[in-house]
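Researcher: Going back to the complex we discussed earlier. I've cleaned up the inputs and rechecked each line, so this should be the final set. Can you rerun the prediction on the complete assembly and write out the structure?
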Amino acid sequence: MAESFPEIRASVRRLCAEFPGAYWQALDRDRIYPTEFVETLTREGFLSVLIPEAYGGAGLGLGAAAAILEEIHRSGCNGGACHAQMYTMGTLLRYGSEVQKQAFLPKIASGALRLQAFGVTEPTSGTDTTRLRTFARREGDRYIVNGQKIWISRAEHSDLMVLLVRTTAREDAAKPSDGMSVLIVDMKEAVGRGLTVRPIRTMLNHATTELFFDDLEVPAENLIGVEGQGFRYILEGMNAERILIAAECIGDGRFFIDRAGAYAKDREVFGRPIGANQGVQFPIARAYVQVSAAALMVDHAAALFEAGEPCGTEANMAKMAASEASWFAADMCVQTHGGFGFAEAFDIERKFRETRLYQVAPISTNLILSHVATHVLGLPKSF
Amino acid sequence: MKVLVPVKRVLDYNLKVKVKSDQSGVDLSNLKMAMNPFCEIAVEEAVRLKEKGVVTEIVAVSIGPEQAQETIRTALAMGADRGILVKVDGDVEPLAVAKILKGIVEAESPQLVILGKQAIDDDANQTGQMLAALLGWPQGTFAFKIDVASDKVTVTREVDGGLQTVALNLPAIVTTDLRLNEPRYASLPNIMKAKKKPIDVKAAADYGVDTAPRLKVLKVTEPPKRQGGVKVKTVAELVDKLKNEAGVL
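Model: Rerun complete. Updated structure for the full complex:
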C-alpha cells in the first residue's frame, strides 16, 4: 500500500537525517532537551500542521500529523519533546473565543509561543480525572489557583499551559464530570509567582515535571469556553493525543524492524547471516505483522477523528495495539542484536526505553482494556 | 532571468535495483520513486540563484508518466515557481528528451537551463550535451560551482585532472555534479504552497517530437556478484597473480 503524505514524509526523513544517533545519545546521557531538533521542526513548519491556514498553520488533518511523528520515530529521533505543540492547541481552537484564538494561534503556529504543556494528572487522582483537586477560585477578574499536578511534560519548555482545574468541588457539582474548567496559564508570568515547576528524572530523556500551585493568579479572560464545562473540552484533545502517540509507536516499531532486518542480513555467525536462521527471522516477521496491523488501526482512528466521528474507542484501541507492537519489536530488536542491543552507540537500548513509555502514557493498557470490556462489550463495571 | 530545470522521476536511490526475470529491463513495479538526485542539485542551484536575486522565475519540467507530477511538485516545494509535465508513457531516450526540451526552451525562452549531469537510472549522461548541440548554446557540464553575472555564467567543472573553469555567454546549458550543493528539504508551508502552483500538461506531439525508441535493448543483466579477495604476501606474488591469473599485465 502506498504511504500517506509521501512528500511530507520525505522532507521529515531528510530533516531527521541531520539529527543522527550521536545527537540523541549525547542528550540522553545528560538528560538535555533537544532544543535544536525542536527549533528545526518548528522553523520548517511541521509542528503547526494542525493549525488552520487562517491562523498561520498548514491546516492539515490528524493523518498528516501522524505521518510526521511516525517518520520522526522511524528515523531514530523522538517527537516526545515537542509533539504536544501540534495538538495541545486543539482545545483552544475548538472552544476558545475568537479573541483568544487571534491572540495565541498565529504565535503558536510560528513557534513564537510554545503551547506544549497540558496540566491534567494529579498525584492523588491519576486517570480518575473527575477527582482532581487543583482548585481555581474566582476573585473579581482573576482566578486564584491552588493545588498540585504531576507528570506534566515539557512544562519547562512551554510558554503556555492548558490547565484543567476544579471551579466547583466534586461534591457540589451536579455530576462528577461537571465543575471543571480549562485555563490558559502564561508560564513566564506564573513561575515564581505561585507556580513552582520541579523536574522529575526518569528512565528516559523526557522533560517531565511536577507542578505546585500556591495562590497562582490567572486572569479570568484566560478561561476557555464556559466555566464548569472543561472536562468535555479536553476529552477530544485526548483522542488526538492517543492517535498521535500511536503513530509514534508505529514509527518506533518500524525503526526496530528496519534495524533488526538490516543487522540480521549483515551479521554473520557460523559462516552465514544470522537472519538465515528462522529463530532470528520469525520474530522480525512477527513484529512486522503486528506493526502493520496496528498501523491500520491508527489510520482508521485518525480517519474517524478527521471526519468528526466519535473515535474514543478506536483511538484507545489503536494506542494499545501500537504500543504493544512497538514493545514486541523493541524486545525483538535487542534480542536480534545480542550484546550490541545494549550498546549505546546502536541506539537500540535508547529506543527500547523510550517506547516502553507508551504502554503507560498517556493512558495505561489496563484502562484501555477496562474501557473496551465495559463500554464496548458490555461487561460489568469493575470500578 | 528565467531558468528551466528539467527533473526526472527515477527509482529512489535508497532502493536496490532488481532486474526483471526476462532480462527486458529493471523491475519498477510497486517501488518507491523519487527525484533523480542530480536533478535535485539542479533545482537547489536554481533556487539559490533566485534567493540571490539573479533569477526571477524557475520552471521545472518533467517528461514521463502522470506520476511525474509528484516529481515536479517536489521541485515546486523546494522553490520552483511553476511546472510543465510532458506526458509520455514508456521509455524516453535522451535524444527525444533533448528534442522536447528544445521545444520547451523555444516556447519559454529561458536564459539558463540547469540539468543534472545524469539520471541514476540509466546513467546516460547525454541529455544536457544533446540539448546544447540542438540549440547551438554553450555548455558547462559537471558543474562544481556556478556564478552568474549579467550576460555570462562562469562554471567550475569537475574534470578528471581536477577543476576547470569556463565562462559561457548566456543563454547557456549547465549540468550539475554531485558536489555543487546540498539540496534542501522542503518545509511544510512550502509543501502546501507547492500544491497550489500551476503545472501545465503537454504531450510530446505538442513539440513535434516522436518518442519512439531508436535503440533496441538486447538484455539487462545484474552485475557479476563480487567475489571475496585474497591477500598476497609479497610483491612478487602480486605481480605473478596479475600476470598469470588476472591477465592484466
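Model: Worth noting: Residues 37-51 of chain B form the longest helix (15 residues).
Researcher: Good, that matches what I expected from the previous run.
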